[in-house]
Amino acid sequence: MLLAGAAFIHAAQAQLVISDTLSGTSSSYDWISLNGACLTAGNQDPSGATKIPGCKNLKDKGVYYKSNTLVGGKDGAMPDSTGNGALRLTNGDTTSGSNGDYQSGAVVSNFTFPVSQGLDVTFKTVTYGGDNLNNHGADGISFFLADGALPPSIGGLGGSLGYSCSNGNPQYDGVRGGYIGIGIDEYGNFSNSGDNTNTGPGFGAGRITVRGAGSTNFADLSTNATTKAYYPTSLSASQRESAVKTTCQTGTIRNTSTKLTYNYPYLTHKDVGEVIANQQATSVPKRSSARPITYSLRITQDGFLSFLYSINGGVSQTVFDKYKITDNNGPLPASFRFGFSAGTGLGSNVHEIMCFKAAQIGTSASSVGLNAQQSAKVQVGSQVYLAYYNPQNWWGQLAARNLVLDPSTDIVSINPVANWDASCVLTGGACGATNKTSGDAQASANRGLLSWNGSTGIALQWGSLSATQKSALDASAASATSSTRLNYLRGVRSDEIQTPTTGKFRKRTGVLGDIVNASPAWVGPPSSPYEGRWQDRLYPSAQPPEGTSYAAFSAGNAARTNVVYAGANDGFMHAFRAGAYKADGSFDKDAANDGRELLAYMPARVVETIYSAGTPALDFSSTQYAHNAYVDATPGTGDLYYQGAWHTWLVGGLGAGGNAAGVIGDKTSIATGTLFALEITDPGNFAEANAAGIVLGEWNSANLNCTGDSIASMCRDSLGSIYGTPIIRRLHDGHWAVIFGNGLNSKSGKAGIYVMTVDQNTGGKSFRFLPTSAGAALAGTAVTMRNGIVQLTSADLDGDHVTDYVYAGDARGNLWRFDLTSNDPARWAAGDSALFTTPSGQPITTRPTVIASSDGNDLDRIVVSFGTGQILPQTLTAAAVPEPAGQSIYGVWDWDMGTWNAKSSRRYVSLAAPQRFTDADLTAQTMSDVAYANGDIFGARTVTRNAVCWKGRPACGSGTARFGWKLALTGAKEQIVYNPIFVDGLFVVNTTIPATTQVLSCEQQPASGYTMAISPDTGGAPSSSYFKSATTGANVAADAVIAGIGLSGVGSPGTVTGEKKKFLVTQNRDGDGSTVQVDPQGNVKGKRLTWIKLR
Q: What is the DSSP letter of 122?
């Protein structure tokens, strides 16, 4: 259908961005509208040829909706107020009546957009307020791109959704010069060749379907040089309709067997997996309660198409990833025009567009995909290791980059060109990170892939899996000698989809999966502070078996291969080669430093869940895969002693992974927690043949047993998703242990820690669970929040390398101390009550820091510092959810040291009577933002320096005595979700101000944050700024001290020194590494790490 208003066609050649919120009284751009298309807050009359009318105007003038009730709108009443509207294409209903039946609406741009620099398009739709026809709604919505050289037009209505031609219902003409049509198909006919065109897999409700180019309409058929002889203009109107209908149905030129070059061919589809529409048969449907779907489409200037969508802010789901659209559709036209269309057919639904944005790009298919994101931490050595994830087809990178020193300035920086990128190593081909134009992929047979079969470590080979694992992973191959799905997981790519008719598994952008929450962990030469003779100072008569043996262990492994371990959502804990040091401590330039994979472990729990037959969106190998988590937590590494020798272990959880139903994004669902342990002492031993000796064990909330378990109380019920990093420590019972928080969303809902003891004589492993008194939050008998502990820290109060206490916060805001001072494990326990509880239960999900603070008295004071915050992860259909505003950083005094002081000669300030205090008993510090920009720094903060008058001091009266300090975070929903570090006498942490998406906009405010450096004694700024050199010229008061800079850093930062200057190193939100000069106070010195000197 040719639309009126074509005489007003003009090009937007000079405009590089089109951004239309569609929420006001009129659009900022010229659109030609059809039938029921209108602005819900609009005030334009329907007489304007290129202005979208207001819905009320359309109804009042009797043009459309004359006898219908306008339903929906932001708050359920029409019209919407200015700024709260949307582009409506069809009206809906509140019952099973006919108020919204047989409606259609469309808009097509009366402007064109140049394609020479490529095209990025974002739009957001909602579908709600209908009669739930056949349980899946009305027809649906389409978005299309058409050749800008041709006049604006609309295709067939009904199942063709205003894009393709129709072979079922009039009108039959398709869009003129159609290039791509995307159908958000509620009812299911856009992919149905029985309804439109001659291609498609058939009816399928709840689909997003993509069709290709076509111009099957009488206007084009009768003027095209190849076809015009068969479509003479002398045909009557009915003959023209019949000719187009038949051509659409057969895909051939009228009265011939010659195929049309393009007939809007079916390209692909993705099943959404749930009903697209909501609020069906509802008396007052509201847009504000609808579930938006956001679409991102990119066409590069060299013809590669990428197309993703996100439901309700959930994970990006890929439909096309760098698909060569010009192979199917022919060359890109010089310009596009845009169109939206919707129809209801026998059903009804409100179909609305909430925003639209188009922009030019200048990138080709070799570039990184849409919205590349960073992982959670930077590891610093002679190299920095930066991990990334990319939500377009969900793949990851891990790049090693040199730290370089410019001797003329003593400035340390990060080389922008990587030494290696693990993604390139596993995938092969050109590598943007290293600037190499080609490379061979590491073969799966040479990667050392391991797993656990329930009783021992195994090579990840089909013949080694248990019958249960085979059934879960690939039941069709259970009795076969191999499995193509397992081969795919191992990195074999021969069964990936190459064309619509070849291959069966999802085509990966890279073999390395996305690295989201699992920060890289570097393990080099042994470096724990265990060189001297061991002696337990609380139990001096004990004879520690370690003796002085660590020095020999350290010397013997000084030159062992450095390995970077990283968990990824391809299901593996990876181990990549990263060079080596010489015995004298210098970096060995001749050692292999190439990112080659030495080992990869797929936990048994992942083997059991990585294939999801019932939910293809969670099936890693499926072409319908959206996203899931598998190995999504940072492992802990460390040295320990048993059976007469030192060992190095890696121990980790799965984070959000391991749950059969996908990522849990709430506080009430029950998770399956998993822990695994690997022996990593000698990387030269890494091989599939040695699996039994490398894989030490795997435990989960279905099989974990603990000392003290009973039928009524099983410790496994308290094991939730382990997001935290386990620690490896020596305890007073003479054994080493792995200590970790019980995680989130456990069945019991309790908070506590686990201690996995490694028997000194046998190496056997046994577990204890130490619960707190804080369980799940209840409303009556209903669980409203499951409690748990994520991160923890140990405290060795007398310096003998034996852990005395463990401190940890829980998800309900309680700070706990666990007493491990006894040599009898049966007496280890959490305190009877929490040391402190945050106001309103602000969650504590990061590691506390513990310091001995000297304030001029004879005894030091134990101060525990921590921040609050939590961000629930994205799921398939929900956005990441940060905690509300009002989070803080705290420092509280552990005043209860009387029992410790009675045991140890190393004594601390204590109070005799039991103490109870709240945040009102803490000294408040405040922060103020400062406008400042320099390099990677955007913004700065000053913090006050109020003194803390500690309770028990004679000078502090009852009204001024304090138990610590507090510092409120002032950014919008600012949180502490990354672990702090204690460095140069300061509490240093990256804060997070979460990204925000405006409901009525296609724009997003990216995440940001500040790197704060404050005194752990008081919570205030240090006496001189840690960032003095980095903020030269900042306009602050003479007595103000800058204690925060806007780096938008992620994870835990590190530090490195040049010849004299010191630098803080962190990864930022864009994935890049940043180095910022810092200024330690007084005689505080940092550890010098190595760097490469520029020559």
A: E
Beta pairing partners, 383: 402
Exposure of 867 by Cβ count < 10 A (0-12 exposed, 13-18 middle, 19+ buried)? buried
Q: What is the DSSP letter of 569?
A: T
Sign of CA dihedral 1024, 1028, 1032, 1033: negative
Residues 991-1021: tens digit of each pLDDT = 999 998 766 678 888 899 999 999 999 999 9
Q: What's the distance, CA 85 to chain centroid?
A: 31
- 833 CB burial (10 A radius; 0-12, 13-18, 19+): middle
Residue-range domains of the chain with CATH: 6-23+104-215+262-359 (2.60.120.200)
Instruction: For residue 736, give every residue at least 6 positions away whose Cβ sits within 8 Å of its Cβ, in sequence order, or none.
Output: 640, 641, 642, 728, 729, 730, 757, 758, 760
Of 152, 139, 178, 334, nearest to 267 by C-alpha is: 178
Q: Which run of H or of E encompasses 937?
A: strand 937-943
Tell me the pLDDT band of 835, cut-offs 50, 70 and 90: very high
Partnered with residue 271 across adjacent β-strands are 207
Instruction: Name the nearest CA neighbour of 3 among 261, 246, 341, 262.
Output: 341
Strand stretches in 991-1048, DSSP E = 996-997, 1004-1005, 1011-1014, 1042-1045
Q: Report the C-alpha gap between 396 and 890 in whole angstroms.
A: 35
Query: Any residues with CB less than 8 A from the CB of 712 and at least 6 apart, and which?
Result: none
pLDDT score, position 999: 63
Cα separation, 89 vs 130, whole angstroms: 13
Band of residue 371 on the pLDDT scale cut at 50, 70, 90: very low
Sequence-ordered list of residues with C-beta below 8 angstroms from that of 423, at least 6 positions apart, any chain? 395, 396, 397, 398, 433, 510, 511, 512
Residue 755 · residue 828 · CB < 8 Å = yes
Output the pLDDT for position 381: 54
3-state DSSP helix/strand/coil percent for the chain, to nearest 5?
10, 35, 55
**pLDDT band for position 377 (50/70/90)?**
very low
For residues 686, 691, 694, 696, the Cα torsion angle rounded to the nearest 10 degrees is: 160
For the residues of 686-725, what is the DSSP string, one character each?
Answer: -SGGGHHHHEEEEEETTT---TT--SS--GGGG--B--S-
Instruction: Determine the Cα–Cα distance for residues 1004 and 884; give it in Å rounded to an integer.
Output: 19
Given a contact cutoff of 8 angstroms between Cβ atoms, the answer to whether 97 and 68 are in contact is: no
> For the residues 1070-1078, what does the mean pLDDT come to?
89
Q: What 3-state class would DSSP assign to 783?
A: strand
Secondary structure letter of residue 985 according to DSSP = T
Q: Which two three-digit tokens encode residue 931?
A: 């406008």
Residue pair 977/937 in contact by the 8 Å Cβ criterion: no
Q: What is the pTM of this model?
A: 0.91
pLDDT on residue 372: 32
What one-character DSSP code corresponds to residue 135?
G
111-114 and 10-11 strand pairing: parallel
Pairwise CA distance, residues 897 & 904, whole Å: 10
| Cα-based distances in Å from 348 to 99, 204, 205, 511, 941 | 8, 18, 15, 44, 54
Q: How far apart are CA 394 and CA 570, in angstroms?
A: 9
pLDDT at residue 1083 above 70?
Answer: no
Predicted confidence at residue 32, as pLDDT, reads 96
Looking at residue 531, its pLDDT comes to 87
Beta carbons of 306 and 327 less than 8 angstroms apart: no
683, amino acid identity: P
**475-523, pLDDT tens digit by residue?**
988 888 899 999 999 999 999 998 767 889 999 999 999 999 999 999 9
517 φ/ψ sector (left φ>0, alpha ψ -120 to 50, else beta):
alpha
Contact assessment for residue 882 and residue 994, using Cβ atoms and an 8 Å cutoff: yes
Distance separating alpha carbons of residues 1005 and 288, to the nearest angstrom: 20
